Amino acid sequence: MKNFIDQFELIQPSYERFARKINELIKELLEEQHVKFHGIEYRAKTIESFNEKVQRKGKSYLNPINDLTDLAGVRIILYYLDDINKLTEIIDSEFDVDEKNSVDKKSELQFDQFGYLSIHKVISLKSNRNELVEWQFCKGFKCEVQIRTVLQHAWASISHTLQYKEESDVPKEIRRELHRLSGLLELADEEFLKIKQKRLDLSNNIGESINNNNLDIRINLDSLFLFSQTSSIYKRIAEVGYESGYARITYGELERQLPKEDIEIAGFNFNISLLIKICEYLEIETLQQLEGELNKAFVEVGSKFTLLLSRLKESEEEEGSYFATPEFLVTQAVILMYLKTLPKDFLVEATQWDEKYISIMLSLNV
């Protein structure tokens, strides 16, 4: 075995590189297919771990470098059970899968056993990718890909700290509790998937109602998001802001220009949530009511956009541009229209904007 350990020590950095590149490739494939993931991580087996495994009692390898299929590993943690199916299809399409050494952990469990449910795929590169220059260093390499949900990962992580690998390891006194917990996590995964589908169905119904000009719909994150995507008044208010001197910006540009901690406040969902808070305060309950208020804002706040920009620049003694997204401008238009109604404390807490900025806005309360 000494020769194999020496050989692995020479090629271990290549396995590190291979694992990293497989990690990056799977991440790209997920993003291309619009599959959101909670996390993705990789590792190559260390020399110490390789040494321990090949010399473990009860194990016998003719050539452990060829026989071991987990010298490189990638773990992908997804949100929903159906995402596992999507990723499995991607992997089956993009890689050669060693079916003999791949396993669905759920299929190994008896109906009365507990354990974490995870899919392990042993993959290698297909010939078309293996011929590319950047991949030629790893011909013949295999990688174990673990696919699991967040809840499956929680079970695996916590049970690992308890050091119970087999059910027979568990004292009878706590076996029932672990059975119950395992079942609850599995049920929770299924329920989250049902909620996801229900939300999609509700969004489809809301979208159909909006398309039919039925805006008697209660305001929430989903309904306001769909309204913002199709509303002509949203676009008109944004154009008023840009004509007043605000500079257009995309979220990709925001990420390059703002400190990381400011991105969330500038983000789309933040401004949608902020507008919901303002609507709650003003007792605006439906999209129909909101559309009426936005039409008023379109008429009333155009000059205030320009005045606000002017005072902001005066306060900082600069002529730089103030970048704005459409969602920010719509939210700001509602605030400007209701300056006499919205208290400063509420604005500071709800917007998380700089207090100096809020004070300048309130100075327009004329």
3D architecture notes:
- Helices cover 62% and strands 10% of the residues.
- It is of the alpha/beta class and 366 residues long.
- It has two domains: 2-187, Beta Polymerase, domain 2 (2-Layer Sandwich), CATH 3.30.460.10; 215-362, no CATH class.
- Strands 1, 2, 3, 4, 5 and 6 form a six-stranded mixed beta sheet that branches. Strands 7-8 form a two-stranded parallel ribbon.
- It is elongated, with a radius of gyration of 28 Å.
Q: Count of DSSP E strands?
A: 8
Query: What spatial form do the alpha-carbon principal axes imply?
Result: elongated
CATH class of the largest domain: Alpha Beta
Biggest beta-sheet profile: 6 strands, mixed
Number of helices: 18
Which structural class do you get from the secondary structure elements?
alpha/beta
How much helical structure, as a percent, in the residues?
A: 55-70%
Radius of gyration: 28 Å
User: Which parts are unreliable, with pLDDT below 50 for 5 consecutive residues or more?
Assistant: 109-114
Give the CATH superfamily of the largest domain.
Answer: Beta Polymerase, domain 2
Estimate nothing, just give the exact number of structural domains.
2
Any idea of the CATH topology of the largest domain? Beta Polymerase, domain 2
Order of helices and strands: HEHHEHEEHEHEHHHHEHHHHHEHHH
Q: Using the 3D structure, state the CATH architecture of the largest domain.
A: 2-Layer Sandwich
Proportion of beta-strand residues: 5-15%
Identify the quaternary structure here: single chain
Mean pLDDT across every amino acid position: 85
